[in-house]
Amino acid sequence: MHMRVRILALLGAAALVLLGAVPAAASADESGGGSYLALGDSVPFGFSPLLNPKHASVFVGYPEMVAEALELHDVDATCPGEATGGFLSLTGIDNVCRFYRFVADNPLHVEYQGSQMDFALRYLRGHPNTRLVTLTLGANDFFRWQHDCVQPMPPPAVNTCAPDPATSFGVMLATMQANLTTIFDKIRGTGYSGLIVGMTYYSLTYPDTSGAAILNGPMQAALKAPGVAGHEASGVEAWRATAMAVPPPDTGSSCMAGLLIRLAPGPKGCDVHPTPLGRDLLAAKVLETIAATCGATDARECVEMNH
Predict the structure, then answer these.
(1) How would residue 161 be classed by pLDDT, with cut points 50, 70 and 90?
(2) Are 63 and 44 in contact, with CB atoms under 8 Å apart?
(3) CATH of the domain at 16
(4) Is residue 178 a part of any domain in this protein?
């Protein structure tokens, strides 16, 4: 119970926030230096509650910054509210991605009708010049667990998590890890041999990052699974120095550091999504992680070496 309460406090209650035709713009990778496939949820999507969701182009996530730095064509297939089960199948557990796409009819950065997994596999098989795949995913599994198990609907609704939310929390983490491992296995199964980077989540408060550490555990384990050969870009470390530079009494607050989108005054007045500053720090961590794979000072060298 103590672990559950800590995670709830650190991560907050708001949501972090498919087999279709590959969009025409995707073919651009064959005429240039290659493409970059970004996968995941609202963080790489660049979601902000302050912007109009009917215009996908207004949302700019860390993949756009990474693609520009690496001079790669950016194919951002991410979806706000995507959970690991929903990523794999439209029948899997979802947070709000399917509502965002099919009910609210909000556009994604690229158009497809099936699951994000199906799109990724179709894209990779059709675009052998893909140089980089990134994934940020898992937080919406937690938010669904929070909704279903910590704040269940009153009777006569069935609480599938009773009588032990703590046990169901462990099941949720194990399922998340299994799904992430499956995602990476399927990506490698296409024959893609380039870089895979898992961008893990940042913390809402520092220096106590234990909640983010628990949430990021499944991704870290999946990146180390046999045959995956993935690399972690740590969201926690991407924001640590900036958050810790905030003067007392708000030292360590990602909100007060300007890393989270502000909705109201004070250290608790922020959404859970990154500001442009927060986004750019995540992008910098991805580039740093890529450069470290070959010991280069320029991440572009490593992208070429790993292709």
Answers:
(1) low
(2) yes
(3) 3.40.50.1110
(4) yes
Q: pLDDT tens digits, residue range 233-282?
A: 999 999 999 999 999 999 999 999 999 999 999 999 999 999 999 999 99
Residue 256 lies in a domain: no
Are the C-beta atoms of 71 and 34 separated by less than 8 Å? no
Residue 106 lies in a domain: yes
Provide the domain limits for residue 49: 2-245+276-305
Residues in the chain: 307
Could you give the number of structural domains in the chain?
1
